Amino acid sequence: MTTASLSLDGKNYELPVVTGTEGEVGVDIGKLRAQSAAITLDPGFTSTGACESKICFIDGEKGILRYRGYPIEQLAEKSDFVEVAWLLLYGELPNAEELAKFRGQLTYHSMIHEDMKKFFEGFPNNAHPMAILSAMVASLSTYYPESETEDHHDENIARLIAKVRTLATYAYKKSIGQPLTYPQNKLPYAENFLHMMFAVPCEEYTVNPVMAKALNMLLILHADHEQNCSTSTVRMVGSSRANIFASISAGICALWGPLHGGANQAVLEMLEMIQNDGGDYKKWVKKAKDKDDGFRLMGFGHRVYKNFDPRATILRTMCEEVLAELHIDDPLLQIAENLEKVALEDEYFVSRKLYPNVDFYSGILYRAMGIPTNMFTVMFSIGRLPGWLAHWKELRDEDSRIYRP
Ligand code: SDX
């Protein structure tokens, strides 16, 4: 199949057809407006591809997710987040030398300029950490003016992946009135984050290896996901040749929404609400089905996955394992599993192919690590950052046209 025919006002138009590596078919309408003065209309972009990309593949019917061809299940089990970040950014898993160099860069760039600490003093203590993160990431561009030029991408990519942990943990420490904790060069990526989050000057802090392993896996599971709302935002802003920090800051803002990455915070708040309401989860499933009620079962449904989100499957198992290893009995996990069971047997959810998504279980793991609910979407941002950067780099490497629907 090399062309698709469109008949409009008695005229026929032959439109080129592109085929992806897994046989996906796309009709290229790039020249339709020039030939026919007509455009296509697709609110919410339910049937629109914005670009051709080599980074990520999802099969929503089969519950397949691959980063550069590697199944998410393999990467979650066998890799760590820094390796996966390199894979997304540069197309192959790093060799030993590349990995050591990249780890070194992420250590070297983990601090922020001392003057940036003053920015935190201006935020109110109850400022949402996503507001702080997006503001601080955009502000990084003021310390690296060379980021306006095209030949510092790799250094700025390493800066962002390194510093996002520091900015996130500073936002948390500021919110609880504790002194900011500097990164420790001897610690690997995830361990350094946990150290900056939870270490206090007055006592020794040792990273729990169970939490470090769970955090690595959580970050891997969130690392990329094709042209989702926030990644499309990063591409949109990057297409204007805005600098890398401005583009990522825009992605953070898009992710914040409760229909997107903000859902992990909304799921925990929903589970706590059901618990405080006596735990009657069936009542809330009924409300979610009532169009007039406006309540949605957060963490359920997905634009692409129409059977199951492979990430949710992995996270569900992880929840049970990590809570057992940490000897935590979290009643919210039982409420979540009851909700999932009832919903998956209910015609409303089955007919609309609404299954638990990545956000449904992730919050229970973050909570087990002692991470506060309003930091959950910040955790999602730390995980998704390499994916955003990989798409930004791909768009800039191919010298893409400016996006203007
Ligand atoms: C993420 O795109 C990505 O890849 C995102 C993500 C990533 O990794 O980047 O996977 C991360 O954002 C996961 C999604 C997190 N969001 C939520 O959990 C919020 C709750 N879910 C929804 O709001 C919704 O399912 C979306 C936003 C996820 C998908 O929205 P769509 O594809 O536009 O679907 P829709 O809103 O048109 O819903 C279709 C039908 C509607 O009913 P009808 O009008 O057909 O009668 O399903 C219903 C909706 O009312 N529906 C729900 C529901 N989700 C959809 N009903 C109750 N509860 C829900 N959660």
Average pLDDT, rounded to a whole number, is 95
Give the helix proportion (percent range). 40-55%
Tell me the strand order in the biggest sheet: 1-2-3
Number of strands: 6
Task: Pick out the low-confidence regions.
Answer: none
Output the structural class.
mainly alpha
- End-to-end separation: 27 Å
Radius of gyration: 22 Å
Strand content: 5-15%
Bound ions, cofactors and other small molecules, one mention each: s-citryldethia Coenzyme A
Biggest sheet descriptor: 3 strands, antiparallel
Could you spell the SSE succession in H and E letters?
EEEHEEEHHHHHHHHHHHHHHHHH
Global outline: globular
Q: Treating each run of at least 4 consecutive H or I residues as one helix, how many helices?
A: 18
Entry summary:
Helices cover 54% and strands 7% of the residues. The chain is mainly alpha-helical. A three-stranded antiparallel sheet has the order 1-2-3. Strands 4-5-6 form a three-stranded antiparallel sheet.
